[in-house]
Amino acid sequence: MHWEEITIPGPGPRMLWPMAWSLLPLIIGTFLLYKEGGLLPIFLLAFAVMLSFTAVWMGASMVPGVIDMPVLLMSPVISFLMLFQPHPYVLTAMSLVAWAVNYRTAEKLSSYSGTRWRVEWDPKEPLPQIEGATMLNHRWAARPLMRIGDNLVIGVRDDKRIMIQALKPFEVSHIAESE
């Protein structure tokens, strides 16, 4: 397999502004929660969680298939649960945990730089059976095909060329013997 390196815009810089701006309502909401109470701090905490979720959503849309759905669903669910006005300590813990998970997810997404690896592929051929890979499709399609550890392999069309694209190249020597 002859891999060629390409450069595409990475998700890191686009996630920076929403993630940074989400700190302001998080800090102000936490301060107001213990000083005055009421609905304004709850709104600010929920807004901070959803703003950090926006950063993760933007990154996940640039690197599809890397983040699992439960991680993406956590922020809207926690923001909705905040409306039931739990104890301030629980409310603070919920918002901080959701923000921390969003931060870790954004950090993971930004680690995928703008470098991808592509190799031409005949769509009539079945995909190779690779030891330790989670197969999402057994034939080529323009969507995620398999996951080898943290390496996501997807099918792409580049003009008239049909290719598979990976975050890191993998070697043919890792291909398991077909039975």
Task: Report the mean per-residue pLDDT as an integer.
Answer: 86
> Helix amount, in percent?
40-55%
Cα(first) to Cα(last) distance is 22 Å
Count of DSSP helices? 5
Could you spell the SSE succession in H and E letters?
Answer: EHHHHHEEEEE
What is the tally of beta strands? 6
Question: How does this model look, in words?
Answer:
This protein has 179 residues and is of the alpha+beta class. It has two domains: 10-110; 114-174, no CATH class. Helices cover 47% and strands 18% of the residues. It contains five helices and six strands. It has a six-stranded antiparallel β-sheet, with no helix packed on it. A hairpin with a 2-residue loop joins strand 4 and strand 5. Helix 1 runs antiparallel to helix 5 (88-110), helix 2 (23-35) runs antiparallel to helix 5 (88-110) and helix 3 (39-62) runs antiparallel to helix 4 (69-82). Residues 174-179 have low confidence and may be disordered.
Name the features.
5 helices; alpha+beta; 179 residues; 2 domains; six-stranded antiparallel beta sheet; disordered C terminus
At a glance:
With 179 residues, this protein is α+β, with helices and mostly antiparallel strands.
List the helices and strands and how they pair.
Blueprint lengths: L3 E4 L4 H10 L1 H13 L3 H24 L6 H14 L5 H23 L4 E6 L12 E3 L8 E5 L2 E8 L2 E6 L13
Antiparallel strand pairs: 1-2, 2-6, 3-4, 4-5, 5-6
Helix pairs in contact: 1-3, 1-5, 2-3, 2-5, 3-4, 3-5, 4-5
